[in-house]
Every structure is written in structure tokens, then in C-alpha cells.
């Protein structure tokens, strides 16, 4: 399900991040820009948990293997391609080789707790931890018949949200000089708010009910965002109180958007145009600092021109890799062996092969045997995928 309003919010979020990492300092937008990541967290919490909630609502079960495979095809290929390319760039351009611990922390998405290579990939680790914890939690609840859409889960999520607030406040007070906001257990409130919104959206009619008060909720949301424009990211008030208020404000904005979508109003084409950047925001986020590095090496203009060049180049590079790498692997999610789960598909292949050999004891395994056909399908699909990637990269370069 694609909600155009959320694509627009993601466009705003990635632009905030780009401005935060630009030289456009001493402006309100630059001061607020670091919170673009938290806006991503709220949106991601809603969309990703919504996939599982929607499946449960339709089938009364959850396929965790398929969920993790689909998430993996979205996240891993683009990230590991980015990782390899940037390691090669650092080696050939700056003669820098990352240490094994730093490389492993990036590979296994623990860079928000351990030494890292890149300064911005910590947020990917936060989301990855969320995907895994959410999938495992829902699977256990479903497996033992403990999950059913009841109001008590709203209370549980509220308690979890409050726990993050208290942890952040207590740990900041105790470790203020060395406090890090990049740890998952201290930055997960935005994601939890998104999960709570998804629960309300799929299992209750609260979203529609709350739309009756949208003209009250909208100004409240905007007021809650004010701390981000006033306090700096490292201020005690911003870390302990301001971030919590801003995330609630983001949550209300998402609520208003998904509530409007629930009514199924017609979406004008200009909204889709504004959301175009948001559709490609993941790859833009991955590559924006790499492009900025080369830009600073080549050009030396004033702050405003450099900021403009940086934003435009980041968008172009990110969209390019989104269309060539990310989109190609996303198509794999429609393959039957992905929809059914890879492990299940191979089990079926082994079962067919066993039955085939029992019925034909003198038959040797050849290309015509059932399992070989199954494996040939996977290999053919993989080869076609790689060819598609190369064709798309070539065609895009020609157009550029």
C-alpha cells in the first residue's frame, strides 16, 4: 500500500537530513535538520509494522520468513553495494582501509553501538533492530496464540514508549558528557509511535474518529515541533524533553495523513510529484555524503551555491542508484520463491526429488529432474537480475 502523503513526508525528511549535513549553518532549518531521521523512524514504524498487521488482519497469521526476505531485498543489496563502493573509493582515493571491527559492525548493523565506518549509517542499524525485534515478537505472540487485536496492546505500546523516555532521561543525567543518542534503546520512541499508529489504523477506527478534530490536531502537531527549531541537538532539554515532543508531533502528522488516506479521497497528481523524492529516499540517504565529498574536492563556491549543488547532486546520485540497484532487487519480491519463502521452496524441491527417485530408482539426477528445474529457475532468475542491473546502469548513464 502506497500512501502519497507519507511519500511527501519522506521527501521532507530527506531534505532536512541533506540540509543538516550542508554548510548552511546558523539557520532554523539546519538546526531542525537532524530530526529528519526521527521523522523517518515514525514513518518506517508505521509502514513496516503495517505489513505484518495487514497480513494478520487478512489471514489470521504472519509469515515471518517472507517478511524478513522482503525487507532484506529492500535494505541489504543497496547497502552492501554502497559499502563495497565506498571502501574501494576510500582505498584508491585516500589510501584508507577500514579495520576489521569497524567493517564487521557495518556488515552486521551494530554500528550504532560499536566503532563504525560511516557517520550516518547508525540510523539503518536502529531500523534493522526494529525489523528483527518486531518480527520475532509478533511470531512468538502468533505462534502461542497470544496475539489478538485488543485495546490492551495500545497500553503495552504506551508503556514501552514511556520506558524509552525514562531511559533517555535517566541515562543522559548519569552519562551526560559521553551520552549517545544513536543507540536503539534510546532512539526507538519514533518507531514505537509509528507501530502504535499502525495498530490504530488496522485494528480500530480511531484514525477516522480523530479526523473530526484535524483542525485542532494540526496546530498541536506544529507547536510540538517548535523545540526542534529552538534548542540544539545536544542541549539537555532537547534530548530529554524536546525530542519526545517532536516525535509526538511527527506522529500526529502521520496520523492525519493516514486518516485522510483511510477516507480514500482522490489524490491530485501534484502530490505524487512532491512524493517522488520520498520514493527514492533510502538510496538518497545512503549516497548523499559520498557525493558531497567529491563535490567539495572539485568546487569551491560560496555557501549557498555549494549547498544547492550538494542537494541537487545528492538527489541525482541517490535516484540513479535507486532506479538501477534498489528497484531491480525490489522486483525480486514478486518472485514465487520469495513470496513462499526460500526455505519452503527448497524443501518442496527436495521432496519432489525424493519422490521422483523412489518412483524411478534407475534414474540419475539430470537437468530434467524436479529439483534441478527448481534450482535452474533460481539461477536463471539471479542471472537475469544481474543482467537487468547492468542494462539499467548503462541506459541511465547514456541518458545522463
Give an overview in words.
The structure is a single chain. The protein contains 20 helices and no strands. The chain has 400 residues and is mainly α.
Determine the number of helices (DSSP H or I, runs of at least 4 residues): 20
The count of strands amounts to 0
Largest sheet: none
Portion of residues within helices: over 70%
**Percent strand:** under 5%
The total number of structural domains is: 1
pLDDT below 50 for ≥5 consecutive residues: which ranges?
A: 344-358, 363-375
Could you tell me how far the N terminus lies from the C terminus, measured between alpha carbons in angstroms?
A: 31 Å
Class from secondary-structure proportions = mainly alpha
Shape: globular
Radius of gyration, taken over Cα atoms and rounded to an integer in Å: 23 Å
Descriptive keywords:
400 residues, globular, mainly alpha
Summarize the structure in short:
The protein has 400 residues and is mainly alpha-helical. The protein has one domain (4-303).
Amino acid at each position: 500500500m502506497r500512501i502519497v502523503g507519507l511519500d511527501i513526508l519522506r521527501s521532507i525528511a530527506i531534505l532536512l537530513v541533506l540540509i543538516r549535513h550542508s554548510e548552511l549553518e546558523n539557520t532554523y532549518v539546519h538546526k531542525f535538520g537532524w530530526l529528519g531521521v526521527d521523522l523517518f523512524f515514525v514513518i518506517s514504524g508505521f509502514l513496516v509494522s503495517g505489513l505484518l498487521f495487514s497480513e494478520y488482519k487478512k489471514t489470521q497469521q504472519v509469515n515471518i520468513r517472507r517478511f524478513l526476505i522482503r525487507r532484506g531485498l529492500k535494505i541489504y543489496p543497496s547497502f552492501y553495494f554502497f559499502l563495497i563502493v565506498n571502501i574501494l573509493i576510500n582505498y584508491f582515493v585516500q589510501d584508507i582501509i577500514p579495520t576489521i571491527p569497524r567493517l564487521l559492525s557495518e556488515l552486521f548493523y551494530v554500528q550504532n553501538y560499536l566503532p563504525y565506518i560511516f557517520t550516518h549509517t547508525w540510523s539503518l542499524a536502529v531500523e534493522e533492530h526494529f525489523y528483527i525485534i518486531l518480527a520475532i515478537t509478533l511470531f512468538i505472540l502468533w505462534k502461542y496464540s497470544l496475539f489478538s487485536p485488543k485495546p490492551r496492546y495500545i497500553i503495552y505500546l504506551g508503556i514501552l514508549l514511556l520506558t524509552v523516555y525514562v531511559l533517555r532521561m535517566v541515562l543522559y543525567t548519569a552519562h551526560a558528557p559521553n551520552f549517545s543518542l544513536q543507540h536503539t534503546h534510546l532512539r526507538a520512541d519514533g518507531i514505537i509511535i509509528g507501530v502504535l499508529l499502525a495498530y490504530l489504523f488496522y485494528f480500530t477506527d480511531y484514525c477516522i474518529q480523530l479526523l473530526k478534530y484535524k483542525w485542532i490536531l494540526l496546530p498541536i502537531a506544529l507547536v510540538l515541533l517548535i523545540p526542534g527549531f529552538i534548542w540544539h541537538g545536544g542541549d539537555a532539554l532537547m534530548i530529554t524533553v524536546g525530542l519526545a515532543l517532536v516525535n509526538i508531533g511527527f506522529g500526529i502528522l502521520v496520523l492525519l495523513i493516514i486518516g485522510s488516506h483511510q477516507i480514500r479521497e482522490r489524490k491530485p497528481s501534484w502530490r505524487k510529484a512532491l512524493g517522488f523524492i520520498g520514493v527514492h529516499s533510502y538510496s538518497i540517504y545512503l549516497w548523499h555524503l559520498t557525493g558531497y565529498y567529491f563535490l567539495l574536492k572539485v568546487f569551491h563556491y560560496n555557501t549557498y551555491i555549494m549547498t544547492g549543488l550538494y542537494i541537487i547532486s545528492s538527489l541525482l546520485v541517490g535516484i540513479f542508484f535507486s532506479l538501477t540497484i534498489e528497484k531491480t532487487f525490489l522486483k525480486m519480491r514478486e518472485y514465487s520463491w520469495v513470496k513462499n519463502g526460500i526455505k519452503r521452496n527448497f524443501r518442496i524441491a527436495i521432496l519432489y526429488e525424493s519422490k521422483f527417485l523412489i518412483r524411478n530408482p534407475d534414474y540419475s539426477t539430470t537437468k530434467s529432474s524436479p529439483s534441478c528445474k527448481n534450482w535452474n529457475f533460481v539461477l536463471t532468475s539471479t542471472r537475469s537480475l544481474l543482467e537487468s542491473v547492468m542494462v539499467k546502469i548503462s541506459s541511465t548513464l547514456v541518458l545522463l
